[in-house]
Amino acid sequence: MAPGHPWWRQAVVYQVYLRSFADGNGDGTGDIRGIRSHLPYLRSLGVDAVWINPWYVSPMNDGGYDVADYRAIDPQFGTMDEAIGLIEDARGLGLHVLLDLVPNHTSSAHPWFEEALASAPGSPARDRYHFRSGRGPNGSRAPTNWAGVFGGSAWTRVDDGEWYLHLFDQTQPDLNWSSPEVAAEFEDILRFWLEKGAAGFRVDVANGLVKDPEYPDIGIDDGNSRGGVSIPYSDLDLLHDIVRDWRKVVDEYEGILVAEAWVDGWDRLANYLRPDEYHQAFDFDFMQAPWDADIMKGIIDAALIGSSGVGAVPTWVLSNHDIVRQVTRYGLPQDVDARAWLLKGDRSLLDPGLGLRRARSAALLMLGLPGSAYLYQGEELGLPEVHDLPFEVLEDPTWVRSRHTRKGRDGCRVPLPWAASGPSFGFGTDGGWLPQPADWGSLSVEAQDGVPGSTLELYREAIDLRSRYLVGTDKFHWVDAGDEMLVFDRGQVRVVVNFGADPVPLPHGEILITSVPAGDGVLTSQGAAWLRSD
Ligand code: GLC
Fold first, then answer.
1. Per residue in 4-41, pLDDT tens?
2. Fewer Cβ within 10 Å of end Cβ, the chain: N or C?
3. DSSP codes, 202-227
């Protein structure tokens, strides 16, 4: 591809949540064999790359984000030979394979952490993690007031009285990135997978790598304060030095780095996209935005301005394995917090039909924007969140650590339906690790494949049109269309989204695609269209 327009700048990347994609050996868990057998499906969608969630050896306390060996495949997912075979097969089909790098923490089953526990306070083995004395007379109070993302304290005490930091589950101890050993180890891990053909990495918890060495409490002004709240373990400027070192390594292989950085807006996110840092950084404001024209417009403007300031482009995303699926989010009233609703919200508030209409429009909005876009497996089928999973099947540590006050993320991780009928709707030869709703056969790939108007065909067509008309140009400008409408031109293509309750006349031009049946020159409520100007 021409310099200035490398493949990733406008790529569509498909996220494979491995445990739930396809089960090739019938044990209820998705695996590498399952992905390999469905590579032609990914090819037929027209995506440029796949990002595979962690597949390394792990006790699976957090779906594989608790890594015990970064250079080996967990046996439930397959073997190293299969992993290399997958990367090669994918490349043969023109698909890049991105892996998930988990540098913020290891598993407590990682040999380094086991060594740290067996070593004395102050030892080099402990220095690879954040071990501290507690507060209070017997050191019985945690070193800081930091809370874990899944709930509870971010510190756990060990037998000799020291505490270790874990921003997530207690089985995910945070690494100390001021230790040169940690930096050297990850440089080696990057090379290990790049040598095997990986095209790059999505970097987990990219905003969390560096902690304030003073370990202040949250709420104390330590100079890192933004928006009034000091977060001494997030988005600290020093973390960018680490990224620059990684960038030099991936550049040797023409690989890419994608940041999962939860930060305060584009003022901060743009830092991750400076020319010697990440190639891409997810726009989580877009992902979390309510279905509202004004809010979306503000978010799109911020992204286009913020990214261009550092010579980058935005990376759009509507969902991933951590968030309530968009069909359900958009089907709830705007003032309802979808995550809280999962546990005990009023079910009558959900309008799934409305959610799906909006999700289909959102797809055309996202795929019409300049920059790259990430799809989360199943969104191309219009899958909703499975909000009624019984408590006893939940695996997300959020459920336990929040003391059953947050249901967690399992509802967006339910195994994919491939077939219209049969055991686990073709996910495997038997049941999947989470139960699928009884009506998911109608949302399966088999039920939608080749069916005009299906959500699967909408995605296929949009990705195809995008590659024909939009890839290769960053051109973008808004067309004024009044409240409750978003309209913009991308060169010869006009993208129109009707957020309102009433139909609107479609502008002139050849209709390329619509998210709703388009008749009589109107675009119905919650519909989107792409037109080619005459
Ligand atoms: C990221 C992952 C999430 C995981 C967490 C801890 O946010 O996307 O799934 O639980 O990091 O690794």
1. 679 999 999 999 999 999 999 999 999 999 999 999 99
2. C
3. EETTTT-S---TT-PPTTS--S--BT
Q: Which of 100, 104, 172, 205, when mutated, tests ligand 1's pocket best, judged by the most ligand atoms within 8 Å of its CB?
A: 205
Mean pLDDT over each residue of the chain, to the nearest integer: 96
What's the angle, vertex CA 287, arms to CA 400 and CA 295, rounded to 5?
Answer: 125
CA 254 to chain centre: 22
User: Residues with Cβ within 6 A of ligand 1?
Assistant: 62, 65, 102, 168, 204-205, 260, 321-322
Distance CA 262, CA 349 (A): 29
pLDDT band of 228, cuts 50, 70, 90: low
Domain 475-532 classification at class level: mainly beta
pLDDT tens, position by position, 459-491: 999 999 999 999 988 999 999 998 999 999 999
Cα-trace Rg, the chain: 23
Report pTM: 0.97
Query: What does CATH list as the number for 111-165?
Result: 3.90.400.10
- Measured CA to CA, the distance from residue 47 to residue 41 in angstroms comes to 10
Q: How far is Cα 208 from Cα 263, in angstroms, rounded to an integer?
A: 10
Tokens found for residue 170: 């207690």
- DSSP code per residue over 271-337: HHTSTTS-SEEB-HHHHH--S-HHHHHHHHHHHHHHHHTTT---EEES--TTS--HHHHTTS-TTS-
Name the fold adopted by 7-102+282-455. Answer: TIM Barrel (3.20.20)
Q: How many degrees, rounded to 5, is the angle at CA 336 between CA 335 and CA 338?
A: 140
Q: Output the CA 469–ligand 1 centroid distance in Å.
A: 35
CATH 3.90.400.10 residue ranges for the chain: 111-165
> What positions carry a catalytic annotation?
204, 260
The CA angle 93-99-102, to the nearest 5 degrees, is: 175
Task: Kindly give the distance from the C-alpha atom of residue 259 to the centroid of ligand 1, in angstroms, as a whole number.
Answer: 12
Kindly state the average pLDDT of the residues 187-202: 98
Distance CA 87, CA 36 (A): 9
| Closest ligand 1 atom number to CA of residue 66 | 12
Confidence tier at 519 by pLDDT (50, 70, 90): confident
* Predicted pLDDT at 487: 98
Q: What percent of the chain has pLDDT over 90?
A: 94
What is the rounded CA–CA span in Å between residue 362 and residue 272?
A: 26
Task: Judge whether residue 242 has pLDDT over 90.
Answer: yes
How far, in Å, CA of 531 to CA of 499, rounded? 17
61: pLDDT strictly greater than 50: yes
**CATH 2.60.40.1180 in the chain, residues?**
475-532
Look at 308 and 508; give whichever has higher pLDDT. 308
From the list 301, 351, 297, the residue with the least C-alpha distance to 327 is 351
pLDDT, mean of residues 96-113: 98
Atom of ligand 1 nearest to the CA of 169: 6
